[in-house]
Every structure is written in structure tokens, then in C-alpha cells.
Specification:
The complex is a heterotetramer of chains A (275), B (240), C (350) and D (298).
Chain A (H helix, E strand, L loop, with lengths): L7 H22 L10 H16 L3 E6 L5 H20 L3 E5 L2 H17 L11 E3 L4 H15 L3 E7 L4 H10 L3 E6 L5 H7 L2 E4 L2 H10 L2 H33 L8 H6 L2 H10 L2
Parallel strand pairs in A: 1-2, 1-4, 2-3, 4-5, 5-6
Helix pairs in contact in A: 1-9, 2-3, 3-4, 3-8, 5-6, 8-9
Chain B lengths: L2 H20 L7 H36 L23 H8 L10 H34 L6 E2 L2 E2 L1 H20 L9 H53 L5
Antiparallel strand pairs in B: 1-2
Chain D lengths: L1 H10 L3 H18 L9 H12 L7 E7 L5 H17 L4 E5 L5 H18 L11 E6 L3 H5 L8 H5 L23 E8 L4 H8 L8 E6 L4 H9 L5 E4 H15 L8 H36 L1
Parallel strand pairs in D: 1-2, 1-4, 2-3, 4-5, 5-6
Classes of the chains: A alpha/beta (275), B mainly alpha (240), C mainly alpha (350), D alpha/beta (298).
Chain lengths: 275, 240, 350, 298
């Protein structure tokens, strides 16, 4: 059935999830170094910016159809890093945009990057190009813009829908080095066929942590892994319960998801009755 | 301009627009560029008004100005003005802070509304997380042994085993902070990557149908509707 | 922490509080805590949140006018295209606004009839109320009678100058419905003219039901004649002649690109690319009519590939993204970023 | 040397040549009206069975959401047409709705088109707006609108007017007080990612959930499967192939039915698929051969 309000177990899970996050962030701030495996796509980000600096051609950073959401926050972390590098190399960075409110946020992030590198006076607001909030008017504007600007490297980060292959092919046709990161898995195959590097699902969220090695982001990344290990275990337990329930039907253990869904009254009854 | 000629010209212009976009397949060219700019212009003009017409006007401004209250011929009113509606002024003014993005000195004010919107989407994502994830989690608890009236149904059992294996292998591949030293760990992670590629290949294959379907529809339009419209245009005969 | 960052962090946290509590708190707080139902004004509050984003719609327009306006003024490369963009923007905005206003007018004409119906119901309702002190029933019915004459004459005007293009049955419906209403109106008029006190309330209810039948058929005629008006036809011409085909043509480019991308990328270079290719080919073969000539089991294999390995891998990626998204939401909500871009950056080395 | 350069040109055909091949592969069947029996789609059969078993009962309606625009018309419009036609043949009242502004023209044109073709097939029967279907039109707010529907105690009050600004209270379908419990079937057609999720997450209450069926573009088929598997979805039309098979089933059931172009489109696509598979094979073979030549040469 639908979930309109949290059951006790869900509130418990939220509290439990918050534990590792704050614990590992504090540990990271205190200077603890975490091991993090290499992700090819992320090293390519700096390579791509360097390449466009050598060729003296612009970089494009597209946030696709991402609306104001946790995904946008992760994408802005990468944009912040890319914008700082472009400010240092004095490289033109264009931002084709799809939504007015997201554009305002992206512009404020880019300005902060130029300000931190002390290059605010070189920030050119006309590099923020609002195309359209209609999916395919946006795609057609993107295609034309990067072909005319002869972009040397293109970033496609965030939430994409069907237009993903159009954006990727446009970059591929002009020989741009492309790094893509899609939180929508069904667009990943098109980025794989048309881009040089593709970050998949949560690798997008990890990108900012990798690039900046900031304690908060590293701590959060490490905490995420811990939670995934718990879910990994939960799946194994759940599968074993389901298997046991099929082989010995009379056992009939309650599975994990029913426990999570148990409403307040059942939990109270269980606590009181100890059944 | 009779209705008939208008439909004729709509079809003709539709064909010209389609050909302008298709011309990009050869090379970025002026013919494409003009229609790209027209497309963005039309979409911006349409979007601005539609956003107003379908949300701001009916849901916020009409109740705010009491336009939904009718005055009857005898001067009495169909309903009273609900003063709580005035609370809508707060989000409207607060939303205007976005426009401070353009001011050098007060740029930070825009960050108030930006933060607020980010916070709102964060608040929403807690329910979204459970509402979407819980059914997925419970349907991942697939029994490794599937019974079909007494005997083990090997086909489904093996499929379930592969399902669980793929799920765990792909999750394992995405662990960032675990060194996969042992041989089995490396193979397990590699198999996660391979199975993910099978998934992406299936996605790609299942999408070819959708993309070609669109192209078929556009070609149907060009080869049948547009072609006959051009014929009538030049032959000045009645539309076919 | 300067006051600005504190304010930004506070507003960010404020943004999330309502939806978080709406989810965490049960439907109805237990009696001990006052039994308050938290989500009572849920749709109004949700509208408030949507309004914040909706107000930002002009940001896009400002950027378009700024970028393309400067190209035109300084006669930079592409100025001609920028003119084309701004002209089509203004033209489409005018046409869409015009279309909206004229369709609103069509609504108000039939709404006036419905308001009269509501008024006659109101007269009857108030009369039955004990605590009602307003105008007497007869005085209000006089007002009703005058208003009725004006509205019915408008309907009659439409009937008098029929448009040839209009289907006839619409006029017949309107005439019959109008006759029913006029008959009720005459009864009321007779009572008013010979100055007696108005008592028979059943006429009011009959009048209201008759008016509520007349309104939709009056709307149908206005709406159909509006559909052939110049505003609507020009709007449709630009919408159906430019906007829709440009969108469909853009989308159909994918038909070309997916085949060129498949041809370029599906080369056996590594196990991964080979696996991806094989899966793609099997799924493609499984959903086209020609599979019968290759192997009857292909759709089954396609289904199995989609249902088991693909669904599982897709779900694993979603699990990871969901947890990462949840953690990002928590960090976003509490603004936990050490050198976050949200705070006021210090001026770097000049 | 000459043979290797010829092969290298085969290895990477210029993309414009490939575009030309695609054009020819699709244009030829269109011009010659050549059709083939579509592939069987089990999930489409599931949906066909659900709709076929629906009985017209008092106060029971189907809620149909067109969340698609002109861009995914080829697949979604065909899906919307076949299911709305089947519902209309079974006399199940339909409430049409959309979260996508560009769906408006389809909300208006599709039921009218089906009404005309059904009335020409059954001259003595009538299908009327307000009785057989109601069009609520486009409403903004995506997830926020969807999650307010289950909470509504009377849909006529939540939506107030239809797409033609007629108050819902006056329409025969809304004579009864309708809530989520009166909706026996939800059928949502979309090419947009995200609109489907808001239905999955919010279109239910704690104790009632209508049968949920979905028409998706081929791109979201695999994602729809995880919802089919978890029981959140009871029936599914998989892209144009699903629509073509459903249309084939309808023609099989109702012999006098007017042929729609779902099956014709489906055939053209089959040929284009074979082109891609051929190109992939060609690309790989020429790749292997040129590698062998290089090994021989060095």
C-alpha cells in the first residue's frame, strides 16, 4: 500500500542513517584519511579542462533537465570545481540552461567560483545561456550552440531524459572530449556509446567528493558505503527469509519489509504484548 | 483566409520546419540556425504565458483578488473573501528574491530563496525515499527456491538466483571505500560490471524501437501529408 | 559565521521542515498531543511552495533578452538570428495571451447564466433560513427578473445572427433550452408585473435547473465559433505549424543518431562492449515482427533479459543513487558543506 | 595497401551514409503499405484481460492520464487510442487528465476521433462527452497534484471545472460523489520520466489502490518491469510494439474495427532494426579482418 506517513520503523531508520553520516563527517574533519577507489570518469574531468585550455576553445557544462533537487546539489559541487579551474586557466565556460530557477543557482555558483579565484571581474554573464524550459527546444539550442562555439570539452551532468543522445551526439560530431554523469540509469547507455567517460548513478554524487577531497564530502561518501553494506546484508537476510518461507511454509517468519511497514498501533501492541 | 488554405499552410510550414532540423544531419547551417532560434523564441513565449495561465493565475491570483466571488444582481455576494488567502503574498514576494541574482551588492539575498527551495526539495525527498525504495526492497526478497506444485521450478529458481546475484554484484561494484583485494572480490566486482553492461545493452536495444517510431511518424508526415500539400500548392487544384 | 550565512542556512532548514514533519508525524496526532491533523492545509501549502518557483519564470526571459538583445545592439555575429528569436518570442507571447483572454471571455458568457442559476437558488435558500434579514424575496426576484432579461437577450442575439459555418444542431439545442428558460422567466415576470408577493419557490428551482442546462449549450456555440476566430486560427497556425513539428523533428533525429551510435559503439573491443552488444541485439530482435523467422523463443529471452539481469542491475543502481540522494538531501537541508558555494566566498588573491 | 583503406572506410562509414540508409529503410514500407503480424506482448495481454473484464457499474470509473506531448506521439498516442477505444467499447466512463501542458490537444482529439469511428461502426449507438468521458485537462503541480487526489473526499470539488470550464457537478459522470475508491482502473501513458513515479508513490491510500496500468515509451520499458515485478503495476503497454499487439488483439475481437496505423508503423520499424543489426555485424567483421591484415603486415 501507499506510504503517506512514516511508520515507527521508518523514523528509526532515518535516525540510524543519520548516525554514520555525522560520525564519519566529524572523523573526516578531524583529519582521518579515507581510502576511496579510483573512478576513471572523474580524473577525466581535469583532463578535459586542460585539453580545452591547450586548444584555446571553450568548455560547456550542461545540467540537462535537473530541477531543484539533491541531484542538482551534487552537480553544483562539480560545476564549482570546473568553474574554478576555468577561472584559473582563463578558459571560456558556457552554461546552456533549461530552467530559470536552476539557472539562477548555477549562475550564483559560477560567480562564487570566479570570486574565490579572485577573477570575479572576468566573469561574463552572457556565458550563462538560457535556451528553453521545453525539452527539445533546449536540445536544438544546445546542438547549435556547441557546434558554433566549437567546444573542446563538454560536461553533461545531472538528470536527463530522451534528449540525452542528441546532446551527446552533438559533442561527438565536433570531436569534443565528453564526460557525462547521469542519475537516470536509462540514459547511461547513450552516454556510454557517445561520450568518452560516463559516471553511473551514485558516481555523480561521489564526483564532488573526489574532486575536492573535502572532509565533509569524503565523510559522507564513506558513511554512504557503510549504509549500503547494511542494505547489502538486509537483502541477503530478506532473501534467506523468503527462501525459508518457501521451503518450510509453516515457519512463516515476518519479512523485513513488513516490519518496516508496521504502523504505530502494531508496534505498540508488539511492545506491550511482547508477542 | 479560409480554413482549408490555413490547414494547407500549416502542413507546408510543418514540412519546412522538419526539413530545417533534418538539414543539421548534413552540417550545422544557416537554414537550421534560423529555425533553431525561432523554436527557442516560440517555446519561451508560449512557456511564459502557459506557466502563468495554468498555475499562477487560477491557483494563486484569482483567489487572492477574490475574482472567484461573484456579485449577484441584488448586490449580495456568492461567498465571503477568505482572508487566509492573503498568506499567498508571502511566497510571491519571497520568490521575487530570485531576481536579486543580478544585483552586485545584494546578490546574497537570492541565496535565501535558493536555499529555501533546496531545503523544500530535501524535505520532500524523505517520503520519496521510502515510498519508492520500500516496494523495490521487498520485491528484491526473491526466494532462491521456487516451488511449483510440490516440485522445484528450476527455471524460476535459477532466474531468482541470478537476479539476487546481479543485484548484489552491481551494488558491490559501486562500493567506493572497499579495496577488492581477494581474487573472488575482484571477480565479483567485475561480474557486477559485466551484468550492468548487459542491462545497458538491453536498455539500448529496447529504445531503438521508440526512436525509430518517431522517425517513422515524421517521415509519414513528410512523404504523405506534406507531399500532397506541396502538390496542391503548385497545381492550384483543390486540396487532395 | 557571518549573519548572512546564518540566515541562508536558517532559510534552507525552514524550507524542509513542513514536508519533513508532514511525513514523520502520523495522520492525526494522538489525543494527548491535541489530536491536531498536521496535513490539513496540505494543498494550499503545496501551492505556496510551487508559487515560489513559478515567480522566477521571468529570469529566463531576462536572460534571453540580455544575451540576444546585446547581440542585436552591438551587431555581433548572429544578430539576424537573435532578431528572429525575439520576434518569435514576442509574437508567440502575444498570440498565447490573446488566445487565453478570448477563451476566458467565452467562459464568462456562459458563467453569467450559471451565476443567475446560483442566485435563484440563493434566494430560495435564504428565504427558508430563519435568521435571514436582507432584502425581501420579492425585491430580490425583481433584480433577478431584470438580470434575466439582459442575459436572455444576449443568448437571443447569438441565435439571431447565425454563423453559416456552425453545425445546425447546436442552434437547435440552444433554441429548445432557451425556450424552457424563457417560459420560466415569463412566469416570474407575470408575478412581478401585477405587483403581488412572490411565494411559489418551485419556479426558482426549475429556473435554476433550466439555466444550468442552457449554460453548457450556450458555451458550446461560443466555443465552436471562437475556434474559427482569427485569434485562435493564428495561434493554432504558429503552434501546429512551427512549435509541434520542430519538437517532433528534433525528437526524431534520435532515430538517425541511435543507429549511427549503435554502429560506432558496438564493436567487440572488450568483454563489456561485447556483452552490451549481444544484449542489445537480442532485445532488438525480440520485439520486431521478424523474430518468427529467426527463433520463436526470442521474445521470451528478451523478456527474461529485461526482467532479470536488467531489472536487478537497474535496481542496484537506483538503490545506490537513492541512498546517495538521501544523504545529499540531509547535507543540503542542514547546509553541511565545509567550503560550500552557498556561503560568502572570501576575495581570493587579486 | 588499397584493400586495407577500402576496409577502413567500411570500418567507419561516414555518419551521413548511415543516415541515408535509415531514411531508405523506413520510407520504403511506408510508401508500399506493407504490414506484418506484430510480436506477442504478454504484458499487453495482461492489460487487455483487465480492461476486457471490466463491467460498467454505477459509480465505477477509469482514470486515464495522458502525460505525453507531440514528441512521443508516435508511441504514446497509439497506446492511448487503443486503450481508450477498448474502455469506450466496454462503456466504462473515463476521466481524462494530464500533468503535462502539451498533452492538451491529445486529451481533446483522441476521444473525439474514437467516438466518430465507433459511431460509424455502430450507427444506432451514441458516445457523449460528460457521460462516456470527461476531460479535466492539464493541471500543473506534478507530484503535489497527484498526492492530493487520494486525500480528496469529492473529486468534483478538488478539480471544480473540466477543460472547457464547465463545473464538474453538472456532468453525468460526477453526479455520484467520486473519490479514489470509485476509480477501478488507472491507465497512465507517458514518455516523460518522473510523472510515472508520482503515480507510483502517491496514487493510493493506506487501504485502497486502483488497478494500475501504464503505457511507456520503449526507453522506460526496463524500469517499468521492476514495477510490474513488484506488483505496483498490473498491466503494461511496451512502446509501439505493445500498442501494435493490443491493436491486433482488438481487431481480432471486434472484426468490423477500422484498421489503425499501429501495425503499419510496427512493420517499418522491424526493417530498420534489421538495418542496425546488419550494420553492427558489418562493423565487427570489417574490424576483425583489418586487425588480421595489420597483424600480417607488421
Amino acid at each position: 500500500m501507499g506510504i503517506e506517513h512514516a511508520s515507527p520503523a521508518m523514523i528509526l531508520i532515518l535516525l540510524i542513517l543519520a548516525g554514520p553520516l555525522f560520525y564519519f563527517i566529524r572523523k573526516a574533519i578531524k583529519g582521518h584519511q579515507f581510502f576511496v577507489r579510483k573512478i576513471a570518469g572523474i580524473d577525466a574531468i581535469n583532463q578535459a579542462i586542460g585539453r580545452s585550455a591547450e586548444l584555446g576553445r571553450p568548455v560547456s557544462f550542461c545540467t540537462g533537465l535537473t530541477n531543484i533537487s539533491p541531484t542538482l546539489y551534487a552537480v553544483l559541487g562539480v560545476l564549482f570545481h570546473v568553474a574554478r579551474r576555468c577561472a584559473i586557466y582563463r578558459n571560456k565556460l558556457i552554461l546552456p540552461q533549461n530552467q530559470p530557477d536552476v539557472m539562477a543557482i548555477a549562475e550564483s555558483v559560477m560567480k562564487d567560483a570566479y570570486r574565490i579565484e579572485g577573477r570575479l571581474h572576468e566573469f561574463d554573464p552572457s556565458n550563462i545561456i538560457y535556451l528553453s524550459d521545453e525539452q527539445f527546444a533546449f536540445a536544438s539550442g544546445y546542438m547549435g550552440t556547441i557546434h558554433r562555439e566549437k567546444v573542446a570539452s563538454a560536461f553533461l551532468f545531472g538528470y536527463f531524459a530522451a534528449e540525452s543522445l542528441i546532446l551527446a551526439e552533438a559533442g561527438q560530431q565536433i570531436g569534443a572530449m565528453q564526460v557525462a554523469a547521469s542519475v537516470s540509469p536509462e540514459q547511461v547507455p547513450f552516454f556510454i556509446t557517445s561520450c568518452d567517460y560516463t559516471l553511473i548513478g551514485e558516481e555523480l554524487f561521489a564526483a564532488a567528493a573526489y574532486l575536492t577531497r573535502e572532509p565533509v564530502q569524503m565523510g559522507s561518501l564513506y558513511a554512504q558505503d557503510r549504509v549500503k553494506i547494511v542494505i547489502f546484508g538486509l537483502i541477503i537476510v530478506g532473501v534467506l527469509i523468503a527462501t525459508a518461507n518457501t521451503i518450510f511454509p509453516e515457519v512463516n517468519w515476518i519479512n523485513i519489509d513488513t516490519i518496516i511497514r508496521a504502523p504505530w498501533q502494531d508496534v505498540k501492541a508488539w511492545l506491550v504484548g511482547g508477542s | 483566409m479560409t480554413n482549408q488554405t490555413l490547414i494547407l499552410w500549416t502542413t507546408i510550414m510543418g514540412g519546412v520546419c522538419t526539413l530545417s532540423i533534418f538539414s543539421f544531419l548534413i552540417k550545422e547551417n544557416p537554414f537550421y540556425r534560423v529555425f533553431e532560434h525561432i523554436f527557442i523564441g516560440i517555446a519561451a513565449g508560449l512557456g511564459a504565458i502557459q506557466g502563468f495561465r495554468y498555475f499562477l493565475w487560477p491557483q494563486i491570483l484569482v483567489p487572492l483578488f477574490g475574482l472567484n466571488i461573484v456579485q449577484y444582481p441584488d448586490g449580495s455576494f456568492s461567498g465571503e473573501y477568505n482572508p487566509y488567502v492573503l498568506l499567498y503574498i508571502a511566497p510571491l514576494l519571497f520568490g521575487l528574491l530570485y531576481y536579486f541574482i543580478y544585483s552586485k551588492k545584494h546578490g546574497w539575498l537570492a541565496k535565501l530563496v535558493i536555499g529555501f527551495s533546496l531545503g523544500a526539495s530535501a524535505g520532500l525527498s524523505f517520503k520519496g525515499f521510502f515510498a519508492e525504495m520500500l516496494p523495490q526492497l521487498s520485491s528484491s526478497f526473491k526466494s532462491l527456491v521456487v516451488m511449483a506444485n510440490g516440485t522445484i521450478d528450476w527455471a524460476s529458481s535459477l532466474s531468482n538466483m541470478l537476479f539476487v546475484f546481479t543485484l548484489l554484484a552491481v551494488m558491490y561494484y559501486f562500493f567506493f571505500s572497499i579495496k577488492a583485494e581477494s581474487a573472488t572480490a575482484k571477480k565479483f566486482s567485475a561480474s557486477g560490471r559485466w551484468l550492468m553492461m548487459v542491462c545497458f545493452g538491453s536498455f539500448f536495444g529496447s529504445t531503438v524501437m521508440a526512436r525509430l517510431a518517431l522517425l517513422v511518424e515524421r517521415l509519414q508526415f513528410l512523404l504523405i501529408d506534406w507531399a500532397s500539400a506541396i502538390k496542391t500548392l503548385f497545381s492550384f487544384g483543390p486540396p487532395a | 559565521m557571518n549573519y548572512r550565512k546564518a540566515l541562508i542556512t536558517f532559510f534552507t532548514f525552514l524550507g524542509g521542515i513542513y514536508f519533513f514533519l508532514e511525513f514523520v508525524l502520523p495522520e492525526k496526532l494522538p489525543e494527548a498531543l491535541g489530536g491536531y491533523v498536521f496535513g490539513m492545509f496540505h494543498s494550499e501549502i503545496s501551492n505556496g511552495f510551487i508559487a515560489i518557483g513559478a515567480v522566477a519564470f521571468a529570469l529566463g526571459l531576462i536572460n534571453l533578452f540580455y544575451v540576444h538583445g546585446s547581440k542585436i545592439i552591438f551587431k555581433r555575429k548572429g544578430a539576424l538570428n537573435s532578431i528572429a528569436l525575439l520576434v518569435s518570442l514576442l509574437l508567440m507571447a502575444y498570440l498565447t495571451l490573446n488566445e487565453w483572454i478570448s477563451s476566458e471571455q467565452v467562459n464568462t458568457r456562459s458563467a453569467d447564466l450559471r451565476n443567475l442559476a446560483a442566485f435563484s437558488e440563493r434566494i430560495k435558500g435564504d428565504a427558508e433560513k430563519s435568521d435571514y434579514e436582507g432584502l425581501s424575496v420579492t425585491e430580490r426576484v425583481v433584480f433577478l427578473n431584470d438580470a434575466l432579461k439582459i442575459e436572455l437577450s444576449k443568448v437571443q442575439a447569438v441565435l439571431d445572427n447565425r454563423e453559416s459555418a456552425m453545425p445546425n444542431f447546436l442552434y437547435e439545442d440552444l433554441t429548445t433550452n432557451l425556450a424552457v428558460v424563457t417560459d420560466k422567466a415569463e412566469k416570474i415576470n407575470k408575478v412581478i408585473n401585477n405587483g403581488s408577493v412572490f411565494t411559489d419557490f418551485t419556479i426558482l428551482t426549475d429556473l435554476s435547473t433550466a439555466l444550468n442546462i442552457l449554460a453548457p449549450s450556450f458555451y458550446k456555440i461560443n466555443e465552436t465559433s471562437y475556434r474559427t476566430s482569427t485569434e485562435k486560427l493564428t495561434y493554432d497556425f504558429v503552434y501546429e505549424g512551427f512549435f509541434v513539428p520542430l519538437g517532433s523533428a528534433m525528437f526524431s533525429l534520435l532515430g538517425f543518431y541511435i543507429i549511427s551510435a549503435g554502429y560506432r559503439a558496438f564493436r567487440i573491443r572488450s568483454t563489456e562492449s561485447a556483452l552490451m552488444m549481444i544484449a542489445a541485439v537480442i532485445v532488438m530482435l525480440g520485439q520486431i515482427p521478424f523474430y518468427i523467422y529467426i527463433w520463436n523463443g526470442l521474445p521470451e529471452v528478451r523478456l527474461w533479459l529485461l526482467e532479470y539481469p536488467s531489472a536487478a542491475a537497474f535496481r542496484a543502481v537506483k538503490f545506490g543513487a537513492a541512498i546517495a540522494g538521501l544523504y545529499m538531501a540531509v547535507r543540503m537541508w542542514f547546509s553541511i558543506e565545509s567550503s560550500s558555494f552557498i556561503e560568502e566566498g572570501k576575495e581570493g588573491p587579486q | 595497401m588499397k584493400s586495407r583503406s577500402k576496409l577502413r572506410s567500411l570500418l567507419n562509414l561516414d555518419r551521413r551514409v548511415i543516415f541515408l540508409f535509415v531514411l531508405l529503410a523506413l520510407a520504403w514500407p511506408l510508401l508500399n503499405k506493407y504490414t506484418i503480424r506484430p510480436a506477442r506482448m504478454k504484458s499487453a495481454d495482461k492489460l487487455f484481460k483487465i480492461v476486457d473484464e471490466l463491467k460498467p457499474e454505477k459509480g465505477k470509473v477509469a482514470f486515464v492520464a495522458f502525460d505525453f506531448g507531440p514528441n512521443t506521439k508516435a508511441e504514446n498516442a497509439s497506446q492511448a487510442q487503443v486503450v481508450v477505444e477498448h474502455l469506450m467499447r466496454k462503456r466504462i466512463p473515463i476521466i481524462l487528465f494530464s500533468q503535462y501542458v502539451l498533452a492538451d490537444p491529445f486529451l481533446k482529439s483522441i476521444p473525439e476521433k474514437i467516438k466518430l469511428s465507433l459511431e460509424s461502426e455502430f450507427p444506432e449507438e451514441k458516445w457523449e462527452y460528460g457521460k462516456d468521458w470527461v476531460n479535466l485537462g492539464y493541471r500543473p503541480g506534478s507530484a503535489l497534484i497527484i498526492q492530493s487526489i487520494p486525500k480528496s473526499t469529492n473529486l468534483a470539488e478538488t478539480f471544480i471545472i473540466d477543460a472547457f470550464s464547465t463545473p464538474l457537478k453538472e456532468l453525468p459522470i460526477f453526479k455520484e460523489k467520486l473519490t479514489l475508491k470509485n476509480i477501478t482502473l488507472l491507465f497512465q501513458v507517458t514518455g516523460l520520466v518522473g510523472t510515472f513515479d508520482s503515480y507510483v508513490q502517491f496514487f493510493q491510500t493506506k487501504d485502497y489502490r486502483p488497478q494500475f496500468s501504464h503505457g511507456c515509451t520503449s526507453i522506460t520499458i526496463p524500469e517499468a518491469y521492476i514495477y510490474l515485478d513488484s506488483g505496483q503495476l498490473n498491466g503494461l503497454l511496451e512502446g509501439i510494439a505493445g500498442a501494435a499487439w493490443y491493436s491486433y488483439r482488438l481487431s481480432d475481437e471486434y472484426k468490423a474495427r477500422e484498421e489503425d496505423d499501429a501495425v503499419l508503423i510496427n512493420t517499418g520499424l522491424g526493417i530498420a532494426h534489421l538495418l542496425l543489426i546488419g550494420l553492427i555485424i558489418l562493423g565487427n567483421i570489417s574490424g576483425l579482418i583489418s586487425k588480421r591484415i595489420e597483424r600480417v603486415a607488421t
